[in-house]
Design goal:
502 residues; alpha/beta; Rossmann fold; Helicase, Ruva Protein, domain 3; six-stranded antiparallel β-sheet; 19 helices; 17 strands
Length: 502
């Protein structure tokens, strides 16, 4: 059998790309993008798609697409046997079609809907143990030439390696999900939440938490409702020397004033009508550990004096008793109120405020840390998916754009509720914008950079815009500069000038 000479450049490219796609399995989306970019480069393709099979419904989904209509293409899926890619999936065989108009297997509806002219298609199966798990499809050549058998041969070799990389990535992701689920379950069983967030703003707060946790000083956590103040209180406790002792939580706003003193400090039998026996309060239960006082700004003035004494002297009396009780408790408080204003208005004691505010920790709202939204949304999706047993794989790009552009007045709590609603409503296997029911609200001044000097507003916009573009392209400066239409050297200078940090 005659074999054409090996093209040294293609062989070198194949080795290089094979090493690239097998270098990191931790980010499946990044891996798939590398695969299809490599395949397109290998064949000089004008446009391309990587489709993965869903064994449950035997459909092919456009996971990654490249080309002028890439974003539109990713909204579609194919039945087994439908179109060139569907035929390749069904028959587990490669196909070279250099005149799609005369091939009955060609399914032109997608091209018509997105407005892309297809003349030629090269499609090869991605096989694992002889089973087709996906299809790599190259559309047209930049040169205008037809696809050759040499193109098919090289792409088949590459596609099989890519299939193994996808399988390894899926195995890695399953293992990571199982570990996360176990950690989540262990944390839940212990009464804690799984902490999700890797933005620069959150990393800075966690570094501060690490330093704060080593002390026994009181901490006041400030932030809007729903930002996750309780999770930071948990992290302070878990990273402290008290982590093996209890973390006792009290929502000061949820308890009526008549019961609050008894809940906090306990009571003795006969202290009031329904006090049929002695009762330990939350401070006594937290002895040796940490007490988290949520919504401390709602604490009545009548209780604040006794609270001050506990902070200063670590002693208190139960309701109905004059016998002092001494406790060793670390106090972490939180509020979404403007506590300075409450002090000025006389609804919160000045001396108590300064005792609580030894180590202040301000948690930024979700709209100021958009980088966390994809990770949080995916985390909530996976949890709701387990609870509802619905096969919702993820978010479409347009749905994620909606999540990223929304201002989230209810912060992380609102995002969690939105994802849960979307999973319940979703009729397909991907959440689309129509599944996201978000309340309409006027944008905050932060969003339009109002009440700022023009130069500062422009700088803030540039920083946010360029950082978002870098994140979208996995911090690849070469790709980002192409999309932004600027030189890579200029992008590097902007990154330095605007102090953009990955």
């Amino acid at each position: 059998m005659f074999m054409s000479p090996v093209d040294p450049q293609k062989f070198e490219t194949l080795i290089e790309l094979n090493a690239l796609i097998n270098s990191d399995y931790s980010e499946p989306k990044t891996l798939l993008t590398r695969i299809i970019e490599s395949a397109t480069r290998l064949t000089d393709g004008e446009a391309s798609s990587l489709l993965l099979a869903n064994p449950e419904n035997e459909r092919l989904y456009f996971e990654i697409a490249l080309g002028s209509k890439a974003q539109d293409v990713q909204k579609f899926s194919l039945k087994k046997g439908e179109g060139i890619a569907g035929w390749v999936f069904q028959n587990n065989r490669s196909l070279v079609v250099n005149d799609v108009s005369n091939d009955p297997r060609y399914f032109g509806d997608i091209g018509k809907k997105v407005g892309f002219a297809t003349q030629r298609i090269l499609a090869v199966p991605m096989r694992v143990r002889d089973e087709c798990v996906g299809v790599i499809e190259i559309i047209n050549k930049n040169s205008g030439n037809p696809f050759t058998e040499d193109d098919r041969h090289w792409l088949e070799i590459f596609a099989n390696q890519a299939a193994l990389a996808v399988q390894n990535s899926r195995s890695f992701e399953r293992a990571r999900n199982e570990i996360t689920n176990l950690q989540d379950q262990i944390a839940t069983d212990r009464g804690y939440h799984t902490f999700v967030g890797g933005s620069r703003a959150i990393r800075e707060k966690l570094e501060l938490v690490e330093r704060v946790a080593r002390t026994d000083s009181s901490v006041l956590i400030l932030g809007e409702s729903g930002v996750g103040k309780e999770l930071f209180a948990e992290q302070i406790h878990l990273q402290s020397k008290r982590s093996d002792r209890p973390l006792v939580r009290v929502n000061c706003a949820a308890l009526p004033e008549s019961l609050l003193e008894s809940e906090l400090f306990g009571h003795v039998k006969g202290a009031f009508t329904d006090a049929s026996s002695d009762r330990r309060g939350r401070f006594e239960l937290a002895d040796g550990g940490t007490i988290f006082l949520d919504e401390i700004g709602e604490l009545p003035l009548t209780i604040q004096a006794k609270m001050l004494r506990v902070i200063q002297q670590r002693t208190f009396e139960k309701l109905g008793s004059s016998e002092p009780i001494t406790v060793d408790v670390r106090i972490v408080a939180a509020t979404n109120r403007d506590i300075d204003q409450a002090v000025e208005q006389g609804t919160f004691r000045n001396d108590l405020y300064y005792r609580l505010n030894v180590l202040p920790l301000h948690i930024p709202p979700l709209r100021q840390r958009q980088e966390d939204i994809p990770d949080l949304a995916t985390f909530f999706l996976k949890r709701v998916r387990r609870e509802t047993n619905k096969n919702v794989r993820g978010f479409t790009d347009s749905a994620m754009e909606v999540l990223l552009s929304y201002t989230w007045p209810g912060n992380v709590r609102e995002l969690e509720n939105a994802v849960e609603r979307a999973v319940v409503i979703c009729a397909g296997d991907m959440i689309s914008p129509g599944d996201l029911i978000l309340q309409t609200a006027e944008p905050t001044s932060d969003d339009h950079y109002a009440e700022r000097p023009l130069r500062e507003a422009v700088t803030l916009f540039k920083r946010h815009f360029i950082e978002s573009a870098l994140r979208s392209h996995k911090w690849n400066q070469t790709e980002t500069s192409k999309v932004l239409g600027i030189q890579r050297t200029y992008l590097s200078r902007l990154i330095k000038e605007l102090n953009i940090v990955k």
